Amino acid sequence: MESLERVGVTGLKTIVMTNWKNRKYNFVPEVELTMDLEREKKGIHMSRLVESITECIEREVKIRRGSLEEVERNILEKLKERHPFNHAEITMKTDLVIPRKTPVTGKTTMETYSVAVKLSSDKGGYTKLLSVEVTGNTVCPHAMNKCNGRTHIQRATGILEIETGYENRIDLEDMIDCVEDAFPSRVYTILKTEDEKRVVKEMYDNPKFVEDVTRGILRNAKKRFKNCRIRARTVSEESIHRHDVIAEGSCMS
Question: pTM for the full model?
Answer without folding.
Answer: 0.92
